[in-house]
Specification:
Strand content: 5-15%
Number of helices: 11
Number of strands: 5
Oligomer: single chain
Helix content: over 70%
Radius of gyration: 22 Å
Strand order of the largest sheet: 1-2-4-3-5
Shape: elongated
Distance between the termini: 16 Å
Largest sheet: 5 strands, mixed
Structural class: alpha+beta
Length: 279
């Protein structure tokens, strides 16, 4: 009896539960944020492909008996849940951002490329969009931040927009809503949110420097970020520690290889025998 469906099923369970839980605890991976982001994306992709492949391979290899029909039903449920979750998350986020941009048009004034919100609360965030992205700062942030600190914050927000971090977060939000609670999608979503902030911090450090950004993060600490936006504030203690982290090229290479391997190896060592069995 071909073991491919069961191996894929076990792999899907591991990649959906224990592996993300372990990765979320490995905070040292944040020192190579780009490679670690690839790893999280690879794990998520491999988990979905394994779940779908388990059902499809069972149906094609075992014939059209009851197990195959049940497997196809489960596979169809996964596809439908992913589709519905993607539609709901995407529709909701775009509606929230459109409404927020309309409010900003009424409540803010322009200062160069910035939208300035007249509030004393220190705020800085961006509203992603394909054609009409906004970088928003409050008057409180302008009063509190020195010019180089403000430049660091603006560089941070522009980094979010250029890299389309909103799309990365949207993909993990879709997975979080599509699967049951035992799947560690909440851990994945939280860690990916941290990683996009670290990546934007790294860009700001390259443009402005670590010290201005660190002072800006402290100045903005505790500031609220509206729904469906990305902001520089938040839990900044670990991020400030990472600003001075030295480069770890070997770790980056190894994590990147792991990201590729988590997708390629299941295909090579598990799906290949299935394809051979079909022939």
């Amino acid at each position: 009896m071909n073991q491919t469906p069961w191996l894929l099923a076990v792999l899907a369970v591991l990649l959906a539960g224990p592996v993300p839980a372990l990765l979320a605890r490995a905070t040292w991976l944040r020192r190579t944020p780009a490679a670690t982001m690839l790893l999280w994306q690879g794990v998520a992709l491999a988990a979905v492909l394994s779940a779908l492949g388990a059902g499809l391979s069972l149906a094609t290899l075992q014939g059209w008996g009851t197990p195959a029909v049940l497997a196809l039903v489960v596979t169809s449920v996964v596809v439908v849940r992913l589709g519905m979750s993607g539609h709901r998350v995407g529709t909701s986020l775009r509606a929230l951002r459109r409404h927020h941009r309309e409010q900003l048009d009424l409540l803010t004034r322009r200062r160069g490329r910035l939208s300035v919100l007249e509030t004393e609360q220190p705020l800085a965030y961006c509203v992603p969009s394909l054609k009409s992205s906004r970088v928003v700062v409050s008057q409180g942030a302008l009063d509190r931040l020195a010019p180089e600190e403000l430049a660091a914050v603006v560089a941070h927000e522009h980094a979010h927009l250029r890299a389309r971090h909103d799309l990365v977060l949207e993909a993990f939000s879709v997975l979080h809503r599509a699967f049951p609670r035992w799947v560690s999608s909440a851990s994945a979503l939280r860690e990916v949110r941290t990683l996009v902030e670290v990546l934007a911090d790294r860009r700001a450090v390259r443009e402005v420097g670590a010290q201005p950004l660190a002072r800006a993060l402290v100045g903005l600490a505790g500031g609220a970020t509206p729904a469906a936006t990305l902001g520089a504030a938040g839990d900044v203690v670990d991020r400030i520690d990472l600003l001075q982290a030295s480069a770890r090229p070997l770790q980056a290479v190894l994590v990147t290889l792991a990201a590729v391997g988590v997708v390629v190896l299941p295909t090579t060592f598990v799906v290949a025998p299935w394809l051979a069995g079909l022939r």
